[in-house]
Amino acid sequence: MADSELTTDASVDARSESNADAPDAVMELEGVTKRYGSETAVRDLSVSVRDGELLTLLGPSGCGKTTTLRMLAGLERPSEGTITLADDEVAGPSTYVKAEERGVGIVFQDFALFPHLSVRENVAFGLTDHDADQTEERVDELLDLVDMPGMGDRSPDQLSGGQQQRVALARSLAPEPDILLLDEPFSNLDVRLRVEMREEVRRILKEAGVTAVSVTHDQEEALSISDRVAVLEDGRLEQIGDPESVFEHPESRFVASFLGQAGFLSARVGETTVDTCIGSYDRTLLKGLSDGYTGAMVDVLVRPDDLRAVPANEANANGAIVRRQYTGPSFIYHVELDNGDVVRCLHNHAEDMDVGEPVTVDLVSDHSLAWYPAKG
Ligand code: ADP
Ligand code: MG
């Protein structure tokens, strides 16, 4: 893909980060590949997880997230590459440490509480080297941490979905794992609870001080809970960085499109300007553009909040509304511009326009924009 040749300053920074030997890495994957027969689920993946961070693997269904988590847990063996945990190799060409010997905790998608055990017994389950008093004390500590004091005698079927998730977290944290893995932890909760539990889970992990790797296909969830996000596509690492940097400086069209609703404006780079079908702008509009691009065609990333559409008469319009998405608080209007580019514009719910209406689209954002060399 031509995109890989793009090296803006931002992309150089983020790429070198992923290869850096972070001194405080707790877990490290190096060149990890997993094949199932002729199918490759994970390709040459190198990532290091830093002490105390919450790292989220983000990508569409089938991109290899669960497979990666299972390899970290010791439930699956890499076909190639090595996994290091606290400086010890736990998987490699000649090593394989079993799941129960890795000090890794897992929170499963369905929480997997033992239905016949009380909350207290569920939380105590992994505390095999504690005596009765120590167990009691540790369980109380964890019930406080997950904000369920005094609920130890309930059975799982007396709990709401959010409470079940709290118990599942408490149970996984009880033996003080070096690293906690969470597979799509919010997928079994309804939408409203999901948003509330995102904040709670982050708070609990941070208070426990545990290093965690979660996986999700939900970009909003990844951006809102994580210290860093690793975007995967088709088993490959596309980009890793803090949420702001992957959202604001996506290094590829895939990352740009996967994080938020992306549109692209075709533009011609002039000596001092960038010329698009909605106007000419100063070259500094494009992030990290080098001199070599003068005369080139590029695609400029525009998200709905970067643009506004204003009703116009046919003569002044630069496009027309082709689709109208109502979300409650806002409208997202899809506008086909005169040159055929389709972009999306974010409007307040009171700004009601019709499909077919001629509009003038304007750039309203005041920050520089990411761009990609035009295809073919
Ligand atoms: P994700 O969690 O991102 O949805 P997975 O890691 O589950 O993706 O799967 C990645 C790819 O590997 C998919 O194409 C899937 O079909 C394949 N895969 C996963 N597990 C197996 C398996 N046990 N046998 C064969 N193929 C598998
Ligand atoms: Mg999965």
Automatic annotation (TrEMBL):
InterPro entries tied to this protein: AAA+_ATPase, ABC_SmlMolc_Importer, ABC_transporter-like_ATP-bd, ABC_transporter-like_CS, Mo/tungstate-bd_C_term_dom, P-loop_NTPase, Transp-assoc_OB_typ2
Bias kind Polar residues: ranges: 1-10
Enzyme's top EC category: translocase
Catalytic activity entry: tungstate(in) + ATP + H2O = tungstate(out) + ADP + phosphate + H(+)
Stored SMART domains: AAA
Pfam families assigned: ABC_tran, TOBE_2
Chief site of localization: membrane
Cell compartments where the protein resides: Cell membrane
Gene3D superfamilies given in the database record: 2.40.50.100, P-loop containing nucleotide triphosphate hydrolases
Membrane topology: Peripheral membrane protein
Region listing for Disordered, in residue ranges: 1-22
Chain ranges of the ABC transporter domain: 27-259
Enzyme Commission number, as recorded: 7.3.2.6
GO cellular component terms attached to this protein's record: ATP-binding cassette (ABC) transporter complex
PROSITE patterns: ABC_TRANSPORTER_1 (PS00211), ABC_TRANSPORTER_2 (PS50893)
Family according to the record: Belongs to the ABC transporter superfamily. Sulfate/tungstate importer (TC 3.A.1.6) family.
Function, as annotated: Part of the ABC transporter complex WtpABC involved in molybdate/tungstate import. Responsible for energy coupling to the transport system.
Subunit structure: The complex is composed of two ATP-binding proteins (WtpC), two transmembrane proteins (WtpB) and a solute-binding protein (WtpA).
Protein name per the record: Molybdate/tungstate import ATP-binding protein WtpC
Species name: Halobacterium bonnevillei
